[in-house]
Amino acid sequence: MIEHRVRVHPSSDHLPREQQLAWRLASVATSAGEAGEAREVEELDADSAAMAANRVVDNAAVAVASLTRRPVAVARAQAAAHPAAARGASVFGSDARASPEWAAWANGTAVRELDFHDTYLAADYSHPGDNIPPLLAVAQHTGRTGADLLRGIVAAYEIQVALVRGICLHEHRVDHVAHLGAATACGLGALLRLPTETVYQAVQQAVHTTTATRQSRKGEISSWKAYAPGFAGKAAIEAVDRAMRGETSPSPIYEGEDGFLAWMLDGPASDYRVSLPEPGEPRRAILDTYTKEHSAEYQAQAVIDLARRLRERTGPPDRVRSIVLHTSHHTHRVIGSGANDPQKYDPTASRETLDHSVPYILAVALEDGSWHHERSYAPERARRPATVELWRRITTVEDPEWTRRYHDPDPERRAFGGRVVITLDDGTVVEDELAVADAHPAGARPFDRPAYQAKFRTLTEGIVAPADQDTFLNTAANLAESTAVELDGLFPTVDTDAVAERDAQLPKGLF
Description:
Blueprint: E1 2-7, H1 21-29, H2 46-65, H3 70-80, H4 100-112, H5 132-142, H6 146-166, H7 177-192, H8 196-209, H9 224-244, H10 260-264, E2 271-276, H11 301-314, E3 320-327, H12 329-334, H13 351-354, H14 358-368, H15 379-382, H16 385-391, E4 394-398, H17 400-406, E5 418-424, E6 429-434, H18 449-460, H19 466-477, H20 496-504
Parallel strand pairs: 3-4
Antiparallel strand pairs: 1-2, 3-5, 5-6
């Protein structure tokens, strides 16, 4: 790996583009050298390609499970109003094709809605699977093969992981989709084998247009949380289209004195380090990412597993006097009581708010011993009096040791869990801890291909017929050899009557 220093430069420096982060990201995506000279296309790492296929399955599973939810239906309706002039791309839950940027919008929303796909946590947060919908849409629209798609996915993950490791956005209350826009633009460049110059310009436009505040994940969290990555994917596609036509973008977007670092992040004194692979070095960052077994914010995954273990030792929930989760700064401040959001204790809160409330999640998991992407968030479940009473006895505190473990430079030692201390009404203390979720690569039951396939079958049961489930899974398993036409098989046939009934209930918009 090569460590690149990224800092603010005055305009008078005329910072050469080869020294700009956007150019270096584009060079990794296009397998180019510092000057942008073309190289032979590097062979995909076999393990990375296999994991990319797993994530295609994971995305489809959660997208299909969300098809009748309102935000997904609205995004699908908007996409349907923008049919493609030629070719186009598929939309989950629809027989019609849409223009690729609108297909990316609809599919990105479907993938994100349930908060149930993959994650990578380091200096910042991310859901790198959000790159897949725009890449798949463009692959379909341009007639690319499965191998092309895999190359784009692996490149996008490489870039997003590098940015998430090196540049923290959330401490400045910038939403993490700013890194997603850059990663998707790079993935599209790899998918289409574009020149480095073109990808460089697209990255800069994507970063410029996808920078937003973290209010979308604060307080009363709205449906925009589901739309945000679809917006970033749509913006990245439009940026690539514009760059392919020879247009330029704000430059240098990261290092400029009025740029991203200077005004959105650490200011004129910004000084970051971003490590990127050397030419010829295998792209394996996707293997450091992980998916979810439970439909909740990633930092709650280990807490759910731990609650299932603890409930056998606590007895009836009404015996609980108090529960304290000792955890990392991130978990305490983002989904814990340290966020100081009263909505995290509100039984009438939105689903989006509840899946970012670890006190709520811990209460329900302790009571039920399980977690379900719909039942666990149902309004009647959240308002159950006994649950509300238990919920309000739960707090979180930051533990410096868990914060240190959260940021451990060794991915195999990094911890996203915590220690739960339960005090019962008779003074008995029950406690236990769990570093990572059971499904994490370092967990008790790491997700493998059969686990991804089982997740797909479970989430699509009753929506996709068993024979159509088989067809989809076979297509995904053979993605590296798939033709352009066979990419259509990555959109499983669904019960369109149920989807149409949901769509008919929507009010009309502009389109």
